[in-house]
Amino acid sequence: MTGQKRKAAIVGVYATEQARGLERSIWSLELEAIKGALAEAGLSHTQVDGLIPMDYDTPISLHMAWTEQLGGHPITYMSIGNASGGVAKAASAIETGLANVVVIYFGNANNPNGPRQLKMLDRAPRVKDWMFLVHGAYMSVWYAMWTQLYLHEFKAERDYFAEYPVKMRENAMLNPASLMGSRGPITIEDVYASRMIASPLHLFECSLDNDGGYAIVVASEEIARDCKTKPIWVIGGAEAMYTDGYQTITAPWNDPKGAAVKRATEIAFGQAGITHDDIDVAGLYDCFAITVVRNLEEMGFCKLGEGADYMHEGHLWLDGNMPSNTDGGLLANSHNGNPSGMHTIEVVRQLRGECGARQVKDPKIGVSLAQGASVHGLAGVAVLARD
Amino acid sequence: MEIEPYLRPLPMKEPQNEPFWEGIARHEFLVPKCNNCGDWNWVPYPACRTCLSEDLTWTKIAGHGTVMTFSVVHRGPPTFGKEPYGTVLLELPERPRSLVILGNTTGMNPEDLHIGMRMKIVYEEIPSEDFVMYRFAPA
Ligand SMILES: [Zn+2]
Questions:
Q1: Residue B45 resides in a domain
Q2: Would you say B48 and B37 are in contact if contact means Cβ atoms under 8 Å apart?
Q3: What pLDDT, on a 0 to 100 scale, did the predictor assign at position A4?
Q4: N or C, fewer C-beta in 10 Å, chain A?
Q5: How many C-beta neighbours within 10 Å does residue B26 have?
């Protein structure tokens, strides 16, 4: 049996409304999410003793402010990161006695990632010396360059990349909370017909860019057993960082040695004692199809250069052997600034059996993966299991 | 440039990078080269990433490279104008530590970009900002 380690569990998850142009503050979205996730678990804010904000630029003063906002009860664990890595660290902190109830949370309001982030000013703004915006290389442009290189290097089938948003739209149509589900199905032809954003990527191949918040509560075994929700145990988890944020790029970009996603996966799977075949459901960070393709390679589901073929074989689709991003993912559900927690929340809901029309049949083990920074320079992996 | 005055973001020229921007102003692209192990380092850090020596010299590179990958951006931020622009990751010949530089194309139709294409670093005056910026042009 896999996953003997059951000392900490995800006991509460919550996502606020996810939409473009919410008239909310970041603080308000985060507060709603924290309260919602604690309420789901049946816990009080007075029990929180660990804080992991997901903002990439988190200073310690942010932990201090949230300590006061939550009533001034002592916080004994404070960390940073992406959601999968946050879950891993929360569980580790709980196992070693540093904390009992850790909240991972994020909110985004009117703070776009895409080209809208640069406003029209009457003078050229000044940014850090090696900042990619000097060259108009916002996130979609980076992933476009990565896709372009991959297609060239491995002679990958272009249509397999366009197929990904089609499948994610199908998932979103089964998720009433998704941004794109109500728009109906799309075809590969629709993807190619949508306007070019950054070659080779069309609009339908780019992640959404919206507002919203979420929170995830991780608690000790003792507390988890008394919560209102079914505990989703953290049986493995790790994070890894290989480079700075979209400044230093190495050649080869797709390094056969692997990088952060490979390293974090190896540690997390090793802790959990699982193999790839044990995973019933997954949340794989999917800002663009190339990210999923490379995730599959780095995580060891297939070899470098085979990710697009592997994806096309259908393993990740709802009727596949490891349905992934069943909520519609970042292309069709929500991409709210740092959306890494959305994948974890969907995996938790799948393991609890709460997903309605998109519910995977009786999943026992799930994995959530987050990535970012110079593409695959930063990663977090959490391995989750139900009783 | 298409939009006048120039409204795209520009580097703030941080003090530790002053020699770099002085080099760009006289049309020389300088990269910190380690006097201890010989490695080049891009982007610049205070010490060599290979041996951690702080004994670095801003050294002129050959000034050409090959296109590792690229994108033609049709939907850029508003200040980048309506015409598509080319964004390139240029791999330089200087080694052993790889040097890959991000930049925009100039003097060509970006639709003509292809992986493996040889390009040279060129310099563009931005009079309204009293700034010289590096760009990539076909070699
Ligand atoms: Zn050195």
A1: yes
A2: yes
A3: 56
A4: N
A5: 9
Tokens 């000044």 sit at which residue?
A: A126
Does the CB of A245 have a partner CB in chain B at under 8 Å?
Answer: no
A3-111+208-386 CATH pick, 3.30.70.920, 3.50.50.60, 3.40.47.10, 3.30.930.10: 3.40.47.10
Report yes or no on whether pTM surpasses 0.80.
yes
Query: Range of B108's domain?
Result: 15-138
Residue B49 CA to ligand 1 centre (angstroms): 6
Distance between first and last Cα of chain B:
21
- What is the C-alpha separation between A208 and A332, in angstroms, rounded? 7
CB atoms within 10 A of CB A159: 13
**C-alpha to C-alpha distance for A133 and B79, rounded to whole angstroms:** 11
Is B4 inside any structural domain?
A: no
Question: Residue ranges per domain, chain A?
Answer: 3-111+208-386
Supply the pLDDT for residue B2. 53
pLDDT along chain A (387 residues), means of 10: 72 97 96 98 98 92 97 97 96 97 96 81 89 96 98 98 98 98 98 98 97 98 97 98 94 96 98 97 98 98 98 98 98 95 98 98 98 92 97
CA distance B9 to chain A (A): 5
Q: Considering only CA atoms, which of B112, B80, B65 is closest in space to residue A137? A: B80
Ligand 1 centroid to B59 CA: how many Å?
Answer: 14
pLDDT the model gives residue A374: 86
Q: Which two tokens stand for residue B56?
A: 């670095």
Name the residue in chain A with its Cα closest to that of B16.
A129
CB contact under 8 A, A135 and B87: yes
